[in-house]
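Tokens as discussed.
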């Protein structure tokens, strides 16, 4: 376990115990002091599973939003592909970091809380990317997050979800908390249709799900 990951687990655990399960994101980014190595998921490149999916040419529409955009790499990749992109994060320090990294970006970076999204964003996006954000939430919170994410998808729009996966009998320990297929079914209960479910479970690797949803 790296020092950065150990600190992430500590911050997450303390925040959950203190009744503020999302508060640790700002603490993590703010105390990183501009060092991406202090943020365990910051690779300074787009997520490989996002890139792989984009290369298949399945994306539709022109407007996109990246949930929990972090340091902005996925948002920038979508913008390079011609989309009008909004990236938001609950952490003010993360968004400030995005502006510092990409001062001339076409991406609209916003500080926003998924649980209090602007009304103008509801049903506004052709493509929604949720990559590794809800797995950072405890189960009782992400059950509430799933319909909030679904709200962002416009009619005939797409949602791509990438997360760690697990079987129901596997115990949850520390962040990140892998999701089950049953939990992800919440997106269908929120009015979306599952188009494709990919289960990456190669021996010796972290199991991940990549799921495409659409709104009819």
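Sequence:
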């Amino acid at each position: 376990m790296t020092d950065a990951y150990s600190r992430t687990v500590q911050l997450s655990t303390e925040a959950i115990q203190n009744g503020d399960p999302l508060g640790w994101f700002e603490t993590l980014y703010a105390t990183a002091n501009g060092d991406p190595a202090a943020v365990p998921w910051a690779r300074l490149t787009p997520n490989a599973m996002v890139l792989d999916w984009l290369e298949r040419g399945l994306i539709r529409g022109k407007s996109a939003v990246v949930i929990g955009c972090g340091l902005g790499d996925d948002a920038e990749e979508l913008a390079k592909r011609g989309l009008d992109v909004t990236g938001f994060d609950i952490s003010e320090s993360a968004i400030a970091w995005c502006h510092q990294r990409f001062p001339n970006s076409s991406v609209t970076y916003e500080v926003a809380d998924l649980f209090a999204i602007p009304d103008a964003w509801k049903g506004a996006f052709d493509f929604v990317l949720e990559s590794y954000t809800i797995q950072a939430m405890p189960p009782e919170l992400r059950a509430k997050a799933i319909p909030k994410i679904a709200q962002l998808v416009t009619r005939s729009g797409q949602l791509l979800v990438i997360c760690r996966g697990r079987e129901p009998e596997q115990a949850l320990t520390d962040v990140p908390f892998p999701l089950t297929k049953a939990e992800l079914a919440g997106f269908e209960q929120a009015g979306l249709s599952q188009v494709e479910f990919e289960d990456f479970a190669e021996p010796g690797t972290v199991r991940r799900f990549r799921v495409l949803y659409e709104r009819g």
